[in-house]
């Protein structure tokens, strides 16, 4: 791993929650030990919707959107447009889906196989994209303004690593959307750290809201579906399905699971069975992230994993994980109209 001299920032993971406040659209906010950024003087920013730059008046910092694992720049076009309509200058880090194949280089590192992988040099390509995006964003405004980072999914914890490795001089705010910030607990049967130690590294080097109060941390979690366990405390049996071997608790469950893929869902009971099966699949994903299946989350990341000690932690009901697969009105994601209004004030 490339070595780098880090500035002597003081890191603290102290946790000071206040009372939860129920807000509109059924979400709760825990206001934690976090300093709001000072008001910004009016500036002129350069925006472009037709390829030509124009200058408008604004007192808001430029925004840099950091794509999540498997996503590309174009996935955030609607979010970018929504933020620009509200007077923000927005840059999305340039990432393509094939770019993520670069992470396969980690397979050549023995630390990958021991679960002690470090972000560098495997993810240096992504950090370079962040650096370029920040530079581009700053060039679009007059004066030396800091930027607000909006990290979706893995983009949130990658932003934390970036700040630890390259400093925070250009960064005022980090908003994470559905980011799995915390590593899975150790010693739980069937749980494998999908990051191969990367999240352990992140939380050792820059725990919690490490760079507060110089950087404001806002962590947004979604409650779209609650996961379920694949089996209860009953004696398990095994059924073969198209998904492989599946553990069930009785012959009725085995028969139900085996027939689900061909079910027409022509009555309410069958629909409920299908929903339950989906919740079990989602629950297995949650378990790999936080060690527990029967928890709420956004369909990919459990709520408990998307919050950080010392951050302003927000939970939004009915919010799906990704712009890919999101739809109105039954499956909005963090950047959908009617949802982003609950976190965009932190960019203003």
TrEMBL record:
<comment type="similarity">
    <text>Belongs to the GPI inositol-deacylase family.</text>
</comment>
<keyword id="KW-0472">Membrane</keyword>
<comment type="function">
    <text>Involved in inositol deacylation of GPI-anchored proteins which plays important roles in the quality control and ER-associated degradation of GPI-anchored proteins.</text>
</comment>
<feature type="domain" description="GPI inositol-deacylase PGAP1-like alpha/beta">
    <location>
        <begin position="134"/>
        <end position="185"/>
    </location>
</feature>
<keyword id="KW-0653">Protein transport</keyword>
<dbReference type="Pfam" id="PF07819">
    <property type="entry name" value="PGAP1"/>
</dbReference>
<dbReference type="InterPro" id="IPR012908">
    <property type="entry name" value="PGAP1-ab_dom-like"/>
</dbReference>
<dbReference type="GO" id="GO:0016788">
    <property type="term" value="F:hydrolase activity, acting on ester bonds"/>
</dbReference>
<keyword id="KW-0378">Hydrolase</keyword>
<dbReference type="InterPro" id="IPR029058">
    <property type="entry name" value="AB_hydrolase_fold"/>
</dbReference>
<dbReference type="GO" id="GO:0015031">
    <property type="term" value="P:protein transport"/>
</dbReference>
<keyword id="KW-0256">Endoplasmic reticulum</keyword>
<dbReference type="GO" id="GO:0005789">
    <property type="term" value="C:endoplasmic reticulum membrane"/>
</dbReference>
<protein>
    <recommendedName>
        <fullName>GPI inositol-deacylase</fullName>
        <ecNumber>3.1.-.-</ecNumber>
    </recommendedName>
</protein>
<keyword id="KW-0813">Transport</keyword>
